[in-house]
Amino acid sequence: MGSPPDVSVVTSGHDVADARLHRLVAAFRRRGLSVEVLGLGDPADGPEGAHVTTRPRGRVWARPLTAVVSAARARGRVVVALDPDALVAVTAIGRARRRAVVADVHEDYGALLRDRAWATGVTGALAGALVAVAGRAARAGDLVLVADEHVPPRSARHRLVVRNLPDLSMLPGPSEPDEQPRALYVGDVRASRGLWAMLDALAGAPGWTLDVVGPVAAADAAQLAARLERDDLAGRVRLHGRRPPAEAWRWARGAWCGLVLLEDTPAFRDAVPSKLYEYLACGLPVVVTDLPRQAAIVREAGVGEVVPSGPGAGAATARVLTAWAADPSRHREVGAAARARQETQQHADPYAAAADAVAELVRRG
């Protein structure tokens, strides 16, 4: 089997095409660490330079078993867990094997459960208990990485904020917009992330098309298929499914704007989605709903438009798109602001601190 890798990244819920997973692994590799990934999906979609092993995506109730199996197979001297169930399994097995344990907490999972239709009754109670146990494991771990300041745990032995800033090596640079107006959405495709608002916007903005890159939630798939057959959307929406980051973002070339029409839910209210940073890094103007932090970025930098969240989000977005198509000078103005922001936001590697901390755990062995 060869020498064990420096780092094992274990996930029971994330596809190996996940963008944050790719960014973290790329940072570990730049630091000279060898990495294996144990996750879901197609191994070919995994991060470059890592040894990738996957399992089929099962039902929600099977995730704990997947977590235990993957944690048992992890061979790294440091094990990074990306989800609550994986963290619980990695902590139990990793501690027995004297491995360093790192929790990477993408979002506030307690708040996220309130956004999931399945998280009710006994299932919801069990999921809530798992999140609580995982929170205690994270606080006691060797290192916890959180995607934003508000993401729990707020205190831990060693807590490092690693925001979802873009890795520019995975994104195309700014480009001239296509002749025909085209909007872009990259991310999970579900109602709470603005799916119906996007479709309402497109229906109200003749002449526009939309590229959607990401997995469609099972709960919304049938309604989405029916909606796309209606005359007002037929042939105007292209669904590309889940793609690894470098492939997902190739549709940014020539796009007129990126959409971030999140609903006002506990999970999203205080968040800044990574796609907002990524759209702007590609030089794209954006349309966002008026959730506090994402709206503040757009208003302060003048890089797009803010629309009300709620039932009117689609119609308000349609008015923005129609106005941009009718007056390209306004679109050029916000596009120039987006490109200017991209030029001034050439961050130092935002994942370097995480890679350094993990490398130190590897060194301690």
UniProtKB/TrEMBL annotation:
<feature type="domain" description="Glycosyl transferase family 1">
    <location>
        <begin position="176"/>
        <end position="340"/>
    </location>
</feature>
<dbReference type="GO" id="GO:0016757">
    <property type="term" value="F:glycosyltransferase activity"/>
</dbReference>
<dbReference type="InterPro" id="IPR001296">
    <property type="entry name" value="Glyco_trans_1"/>
</dbReference>
<dbReference type="Pfam" id="PF00534">
    <property type="entry name" value="Glycos_transf_1"/>
</dbReference>
<protein>
    <submittedName>
        <fullName>Glycosyltransferase involved in cell wall biosynthesis</fullName>
    </submittedName>
</protein>
<keyword id="KW-0328">Glycosyltransferase</keyword>
<keyword id="KW-0808">Transferase</keyword>
